[in-house]
Amino acid sequence: MIKPDNSGTDSAKHNAAMKQRKGHVDAKIERADEERGVAILLTGNGKGKSSSAFGMAMRSLGYGYKIGIIQFIKGKQLSGEEIFIREQHPEVYFQQMATGFTWDTQDRAGDIAAAEGTWAHAEKLLADASYHLVILDELTYMLSYKYLDEGRVLNALRNRPAEQSVVVTGRGGGEGLRDLVDTVSELQDIKHAFRAGVKARKGVDY
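Below the sequence we write its predicted structure tokens.
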């Protein structure tokens, strides 16, 4: 039995659906007429929050924009992104808290002092209109553990230069931060190789 050739009908349906979708997308683009920097929160239990932030750093560097990166918690173990930034882009303002994870230090007073010292660098960038993008990697933990004053942090984010964008990464961070930012993306932890006994992979995990 010869099956009917519906390729023409399928193609017409597809084209009509795509035309309708294009109309919806074009209308949304037309409505988005405000030009300013944005605040983005990358959160959730899934892998890839910092990786996404560094992807945006690469985008900005591609356009020749001035960027600053502040890393909280990380810094004790050398990472691929640190090597790349320091060796290939020394013009980037790059500061790390360099204490490692809080469960490694087990020193609350020391961690608070380190967090406050590192936050001073972040405040400097958030007040400087020459920075197109500022990344505050793992900042949420500083709020969750109350190492930094939430009001002080939110005020600096809220009052940054209008054209400056900021990306905050990390789990949690509180409702105040979520309410302040423009975009929140939450990464889900569905499956992770580490739980199956697979070691962290250089160039993939760090």
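The longest strand covers residues 39-43.
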